[in-house]
Design brief:
With 79 residues, the chain is mainly α. It has helices at 11-23, 28-40, 48-60, 65-75, and strands at 44-45, 77-78. Helix 2 (28-40) packs across helix 3 and helix 3 (48-60) runs antiparallel to helix 4.
């Protein structure tokens, strides 16, 4: 059995995403699109449903970087 690789996104990237999510007044669908764009811009795939669910969980946790890291790791699909 091989260990599962976990992607650690750069703190600066997470902070920029967090600021975008907090400051732009996005609705849930727009937040999901921003999250999907963040991941695809880094070479990952993501389902829209997963991005929407992650956006809701991130919002519920007040956009903590720890929650963002966990959610992005969970939904990122290796291309």
């Amino acid at each position: 059995m091989t260990p599962q690789m976990t992607e650690k996104f750069a703190t600066a990237d997470l902070s920029a995403l967090r600021n975008d999510l907090l400051q732009t007044g996005l609705d849930s669908f727009q937040a999901a699109e921003l999250i999907a764009s963040f991941l695809t811009g880094r070479g990952y795939g993501v389902s829209q449903d997963d991005a929407f669910a992650a956006a809701a969980r991130i919002e519920a946790e007040r956009c903590s970087t720890e929650t963002m890291q966990t959610e992005l790791e969970r939904i990122a699909l290796i291309m």
